[in-house]
Amino acid sequence: IISFAQKETSWDYAEFWEISESWNSQTTYEEKLIDCQIPSKLLKKMTTEALVKTCLNFPFLLDIYAFENTQEGFERIISGFNGINELYSRDDVATVLLVLYKKIKNEHFRKPELLNTKYKDRRGKFVIELDYIESFIAQDAVLSKLTKAEKKQLAEECIQKHDEKCKNNDLYGIDNIHSTVLILGRLLQIEDEFNIKDDKLKTTDFIKKGKLEKIGSFNEIMENAKNYVSK
Q1: What 3 state SS string does 150-201 have?
Q2: % of the chain residues with pLDDT over 90
Q3: What is the pTM of this model?
Q4: CB 3.0 to 4.6 Å from 23: which of 4, 7, 27, 41, for a disulfide?
Q5: CA end-to-end distance (rounded Å), the chain
């Protein structure tokens, strides 16, 4: 969904992959992580926009889905990559991510190539990169930095994107809708706008861990979210 802007200082993993050809079956995961760290001199100089783009191209983001739940997976990535740690320390990280998220319009869900030509005939790539962006936004380090107005904007965006994913269910499954609803659930908790009288659907656990046990949790969160934006 994003590409490197030449005018910005960023760490281009496209160049990194050319170097990484030396990796082999004897190279450990820890050694590869060391190779992937952003040079410290560059890290502080990067704009937040460039840092977001770099983090979203981190080669091991797929590891989010390799653990018991997505929150555990994301925390493992944060602990092992200096780029995300630096990103979440920025005061403007929430605003930058929200601007990026809002650039993804409803028509992009049907025709991702309208957003970037690299998605022509590669809709699956668009889907996974959208999941990554939503996973970044769903963290408290981002949501807590949004203003009241920005929180409402984010909720509206998530509702629209949720509905668009549901319309295109040939491509977006439960796992892809999951990240959108997770943002809303956590946002509602921060705003104290979520009234759960009886947690039979285990919605609280889903919001905390990002692990879905009952599909009804989605409906519960969406109903609360729509009430929130309508106020």
Answers
A1: HHHHHHHHHHHHHHHHHHCCCCCCHHHHHHHHHHHHHHHHHCCCCCCCCCCC
A2: 45
A3: 0.87
A4: 27
A5: 32
